[in-house]
């Protein structure tokens, strides 16, 4: 007899135990589901790539995406509905999960609230969202750290329960040899959070000192059947991991401090400028000179955004709030003409943010004392300075603007 999944046309003995066939069938179901989720992610990415084919259409599309993200951050359910109604998101749980998992500029609090909803569609989204995490061969504490960094846990107990149940199910699917069942993973996951609170949050302790290793083991023994109790080494590693490295939950600022602008925003000016880098390039003949890079700049919502190009305006390389900054012409730069400069009116640095290298969704403060740009012409420089002054609402004395 020939069975699908056991090779191409391979003849298999008809006396194969049914439990082996069932396990293989379940494994194939999981693999098919993972393929569907990867396809959903690819389709999201392809829809964005296709929208890049025309600059004007791309500009309109980006504004719609930004408006949709604003809607989502304000009201997650209404935001998803808006994205679907405007043709930006397919009305499937797979595509919605891919959007929440991949898209930048979303409020982590809004993501957590949306994932915790109880209706069937949201539960399917949560399941797909959890499946997009790769926990294979990971310690459960490290897997939980990764999972809980992608959103902020909502405050409602039932929402937390659903979200943690999805984590436990996914972790068990990735590592069925470590724990006896998904239910045990679920119990251990909650025990980890309680242990973290006991060890690192004095104000939340119900009495007495922090949870000792012995008490932690006893608490697990009270909730996990003896024949399903994790190996003692695993339990000890969990305790030591949390004791030595607090399980930290993301702040809202980690993923949503980046301003996003939508179709209702007023763009005062946008265009190409050369931006001077903060580091110096070493010359082959000796000496150093500051490097310049061409960037796409947009003035909107009281901020100056800059991007890699005008085709990537959903992913800012930096954001400069136009508060407490001065704007001036610079004519003494020997490498570029038509220069202008942003400088701090208070303090010694211009307030700015940029993506943290290697950390998706995290933004860090900039450290520039000035931001120097070069325009395309004298008229272009004057236009930029005029727009920046309007946006900043800070007029400097004329003798300092010349």
Automatic annotation (TrEMBL):
Keywords: Coiled coil. GO terms for biological process: regulation of ARF protein signal transduction. Residues 266-393 form the PH domain. It comes from the Eukaryota. InterPro entries: PH-like_dom_sf, PH_domain, Sec7_C_sf, Sec7_dom, Sec7_dom_sf. GO terms for molecular function: guanyl-nucleotide exchange factor activity. Residues 18-45 form a coiled coil. Signal peptide: none annotated. Residues 54-245 form the SEC7 domain. The keyword Coiled coil applies. This is Uncharacterized protein. It comes from Adineta ricciae (Rotifer).
């Amino acid at each position: 007899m020939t069975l699908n999944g056991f090779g191409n046309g391979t003849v298999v003995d008809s006396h194969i135990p049914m439990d082996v066939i069932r396990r293989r069938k379940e494994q194939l179901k999981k693999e098919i589901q993972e393929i569907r989720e990867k396809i959903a992610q690819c389709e999201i990415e392809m829809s964005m790539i296709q929208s890049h084919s025309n600059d004007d259409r791309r500009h309109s599309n980006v504004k719609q995406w930004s408006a949709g993200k604003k809607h989502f951050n304000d009201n997650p359910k209404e935001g998803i509905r808006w994205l679907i109604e405007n043709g930006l998101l397919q009305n499937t749980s797979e595509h919605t999960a891919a959007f929440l998992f991949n898209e930048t500029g979303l409020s982590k609090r809004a993501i957590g609230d949306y994932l915790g909803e109880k209706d069937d569609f949201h539960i399917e989204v949560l399941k797909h969202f959890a499946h997009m995490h790769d926990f294979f061969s990971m310690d459960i504490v490290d897997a939980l750290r990764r999972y809980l960094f992608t959103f902020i846990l909502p405050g409602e107990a039932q929402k937390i329960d659903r979200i943690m149940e999805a984590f436990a199910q996914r972790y068990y699917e990735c590592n069925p040899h470590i724990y006896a069942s998904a239910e045990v993973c679920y119990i251990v996951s909650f025990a980890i959070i309680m242990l973290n609170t006991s060890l690192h949050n004095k104000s939340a302790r119900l009495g007495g000192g922090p949870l000792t290793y012995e008490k932690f083991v006893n608490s697990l023994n009270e909730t996990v059947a003896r024949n399903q109790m994790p190996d003692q080494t695993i339990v000890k590693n969990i305790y030591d991991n949390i004791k030595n490295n607090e399980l930290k939950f993301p702040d809202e600022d980690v993923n949503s401090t980046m301003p996003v602008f939508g179709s209702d925003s007023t763009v005062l000016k946008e265009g190409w400028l050369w931006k001077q880098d903060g580091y110096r390039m070493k010359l082959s003949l000796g000496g150093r000179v500051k490097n310049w890079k061409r960037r796409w700049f947009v003035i909107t919502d009281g901020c100056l955004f800059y991007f890699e190009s005008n085709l990537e305006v959903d992913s800012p390389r930096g954001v400069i709030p136009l508060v407490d900054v001065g704007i001036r012409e610079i004519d003494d730069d020997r490498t570029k003409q038509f220069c202008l400069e942003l400088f701090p009116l208070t303090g010694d640095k211009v307030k700015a943010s940029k993506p943290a290298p290697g950390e998706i969704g995290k933004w860090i403060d900039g450290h520039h004392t000035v931001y120097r740009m070069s325009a395309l012409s004298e008229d272009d420089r004057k236009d930029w300075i005029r727009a920046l002054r309007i946006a900043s609402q800070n007029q400097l004395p004329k003798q300092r603007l010349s």
